Amino acid sequence: MTALFKNGMMRSWLPRTVGAKSISTSTRKSRGGRLLISLGLLTAVGSGVYYSQDAASRRKIRVTFQGVTRYIRSIVTGATVALDYKISLRGMDEDSEGYQTLLGKVHKRSAERILDCCLKNGGLYIKLGQSIVMMSHVIPKQYLDILVVLQDKVLPRGPGEVEDVFLQEFGKLPSELFKSFEEEPIAAASLAQVHKAVTHEGDEVAVKVQYIDLRDRFLGDMTTLKFLADALCWLYPFLPLSWILEDMKGSLSRELDFLAEGANAEKCADDLAHLKFIHVPKVYWSLTSLRVLTTEFIDGVKISNKAELAKQGLPLKDIDYKLFRCFADQIFHSGHVHADPHPGNLYVRKSSDGSAELVLLDHGLYEYIDTSDRVALANFFKAIVLKDEPAMQYHAQRMNVKEWHVLACFLTQKYVASKSNPPPDFKKIKSKEEWLKLPEEDKKKIQEKFKAMRGRMSEVMKTMPKALILITRNLNTVRSIGRDHGNLVDRYTIMARSAVEGAEIGKVKETGFTARIKTLREKARFEYYLKWESVKTWLMAKAFTILHWMGRVPDLEEMLNKSSPKDIEFAA
Asked: How do residues 339-368 score in pLDDT, each as one tens digit?
């Protein structure tokens, strides 16, 4: 029996076991082969269905597939950023030095992840990154330093896209609508690219063509971005992404309408007709549609190109006066304000008399200040000059702002001292060494003052009309151009005079000798305060220059641009 078991049963068992294994392996290979065949057939059928559609349907399929990809990538990026903050900073004291150092590192990692996501997703995501960079007063510095590269990024476009847009908008190719049309764009941005062309009448024109898939992507991308922004802002209130996104959604819907952009350009030209040194390119309406804008071609110099401006004999001081006057009049006179005045949209050329003429380009994004808010803002600025605290308080309340002093600092970008709000006392701090020698308690008090001011600034921004917040972004951009030129003009005085004129617009002027005397007296009083303020500012600037040369204080511009005492080396 044993032999039988060994020789029979064992022999009969072994082949069956080996056979079972062989069948199992074969089955897996067979199933794998069937899976590959199924996938191949599915791909073939899908490709057949895709290529059997017309061009518009194929584009919709591509947009849907790409939208799913962008959605997944965005969700993964958002979750990674959220978890990094939550895990890295868990259990740490916010007031500790180590917390701030680690927070900066997390900011940097998060900004790099968001940058990568924006670059891969393109389109509206690049626009979001650009909007974040514009909010320099509320976004951590690490985000600004990393996301700033998005200012120069554009979408890669496929061949034939421009022709498709023209066929959809006009039913004709560019070669039919123009005498000549350069296929290579002369400029490109996140929403459109610009081509040079010549009309059949012989006029040189710039043709702005919107990227073909932006409208198809708009709703899906905005929904994804809103979901992520709400989630991140719930976790981390210091990231005002929801507010930025809400602003971007409204502005983008306007920017995607090139007919509205043409109307903005013509209104801008009418509003600034009294400034003979301002030029707005003419719109060619017969060659303009919702996604194509044709305007007069401008051959000028970017306002940031100081070397070329000097070569052409166009003085920066004259240019800067005209720049600040232009935007001050938009803010205080018409309330219809160009909201994207970066150097690429501002050109300078010689006028017929040889002086500098400022050319305003790209009118897709405008802010509208309500008349009551515009008048209140103009009177508020006038009250700042006259140091009329009751008037400042009154006009600030008209703009739904309680802390008028904070609004004054926010608007003028300098500390507006007053009886009720004296400037911080830094008299004891004459050098970096003395700052370091201060007791920790004194340092903490000073830091708390800066922190409190930023908190009060945030509260003011929440209550004031949103258009006025966006106007400050406009002013910051224009100021940066002036700083790059060397701060050659007194922008405060230019804006103040424009504000006074704006406060008088629409008023019924009194007549008679007494009224004229009253007007002259008020004007003389205003000019006296304005001149005195200008002299004080000049003297202070000279004093800071001398002290900086002696090594007693840091560079004034650098110091004013720092966000807190932790960032500055020492204060005056």
From this structure: 888 888 999 999 989 999 999 999 998 988
Question: Going by DSSP bridges, is the β-strand pair 336-338/192-198 parallel, antiparallel, or unpaired?
Answer: unpaired
pLDDT digits over 89-141, tens only? Answer: 887 777 677 888 888 899 899 889 988 888 888 767 777 777 666 665 567 78
Q: Which two tokens mark 481?
A: 């151009």
Q: 257 an active-site residue?
A: no
Neighbours of 87 (CB within 10 A): 9
Q: Which of 221, 271, 340, 362 is the catalytic position?
A: 340
The whole-angstrom separation of Cα 153 and Cα 122 is 9
Inter-residue contact 74 to 225 (CB < 8 Å): yes
Q: What's the pTM value of the predicted model, to 2 decimals?
A: 0.69
Rounded CA separation 331/339 (Å):
11
Residue 295's φ and ψ, nearest 5 degrees, are: -135, 170
Of 57, 67, 61, 58, nearest in space to 220 by CA: 67
Distance CA 391, CA 541 (A): 28
d(CA 411, CA 401): 13
DSSP state of 283: B
Residues in the chain: 572
